[in-house]
Amino acid sequence: MQNSIASKGKGILAMDESNATCGKRLESIGLENTEANRQAYRQLLVTTPGLGDYISGAILFEETLYQSTTDGRTMVDCLNANGIIPGIKVDKGLVPLTGSNNESWCQGLDGLASRTAAYYKQGARFAKWRTVVSIPNGPSELAVTEAAWGLARYASICQDNGLAPIVEPEILLDGDHGIDRTLEVASKVWSKVFYFLAENNVLFEGILLKPSMVTPGAECKERATPEQVAQYTLNMLKRRVPPAVPGIMFLSGGQSEVEATLNLNAMNQSPNPWHVSFSYARALQNSVLKTWKGQPENVEAAQRALLVRAKANSLAQLGKYSA
Ligand code: 13P
C-alpha cells in the first residue's frame, strides 16, 4: 500500500479537514458550514477527472469516508474509480498538554484498534495521525516525548489492523526563529519518533512520513531559498530517517501553493534514499476554493485548478517543475 502511494510522479491529496476546519475554509468563500456544503466540496475534489494521474492517495475525514455524492456513489468508490487509494485521519485532535509551556498533545488512542478495523472495512487503506510541536512555546521535553510516543502507539495499532500509518509530527511554522533553530528542533523530534517507533516494533517498511519542511519561522525576516530549504530538510532527514522507510510526503503548513511546489522540486534535483513527495491540503486546495466559490457552474473550472496544482507537484516530485 505504502509503496503504491509512493509511486513516481505521485503524491497525496490531504482533504481530511475536520468539520470545524472545513467550516473555516467554506467561510472564507462565504459558505455556511453545513453537511451539504461539505459534501458538495468534497464531491468536487474526488470526482475530478484525471486526478489519479498525479494523486495516488487521498486522506479523508471520517464524515467523508461514510459519505456519498449527490448522485449516490460513495466518495470511496469515486476515489477508487480515479485510481486513488482512500485514507483516513484517525487522530481526535489537539488538546492542552497540562504541565507544559502551553503546548498541546494529540488525542485518539482509546478505541483506535476498533475504529481502524471499521475504517478498513469501509475501504480505507492508510491512516494519518497529526500531532504538533511548537517552537516558540518550547518545545518542552515533555511535549516532544508525548508527541513521539503517541505517534508510535498509533502506528503500531494501524499496522495491526491493516492500515499503513502516516507519521506526522508537524513542527509549526509560527515564530520568528531562524532555519537553524528549526533544524535543531526537527532533528530532536525525529530522533525521538524513530526511537519510539522501534521500541513499539513498528515495521519501518510499512510507514510513510509526513514532515514539515525545515524553513525559517513564518515571522523570521531572513527568508530561505528553495535550495536552502531542500538542503536543510534533506540533511536533517538523511541523519534521522532510515532508508527502509519508503516515502516522505511533506505537508505544506501554510506555505503558498507555488512556494510548496518550488521547495519540493528543489528536493528532487538529485536522487534521495526515499520517494520524496507531497501530502498537501492548503497548497493543493487554495485556488480550488477561490475558483469554486460554492457555485455549481464553477465546479469544472475548480477541478481544472486542482489539476493544475496536482500536475505541478507531480512534476516537482520528478524534479522537473519550473514556475
Ligand atoms: P497543509 O498541507 O495545509 O499543511 O495540510 C496538510 C495536513 O494534512 C496537515 O495535517
TrEMBL record:
One of its GO terms (cellular component) is chloroplast. One of its GO terms (biological process) is glycolytic process. Pathway: Carbohydrate degradation; glycolysis; D-glyceraldehyde 3-phosphate and glycerone phosphate from D-glucose: step 4/4. Keywords: Chloroplast, Glycolysis, Lyase, Plastid, Schiff base. One of its GO terms (molecular function) is fructose-bisphosphate aldolase activity. The keyword Metal-binding does not apply. CDD domains: FBP_aldolase_I_a (cd00948). Its EC number is 4.1.2.13. It catalyses: beta-D-fructose 1,6-bisphosphate = D-glyceraldehyde 3-phosphate + dihydroxyacetone phosphate. It is found in: Plastid, Chloroplast. Belongs to the class I fructose-bisphosphate aldolase family. This is Fructose-bisphosphate aldolase. It comes from Physcomitrium patens (Spreading-leaved earth moss). The gene is LOC112274252.
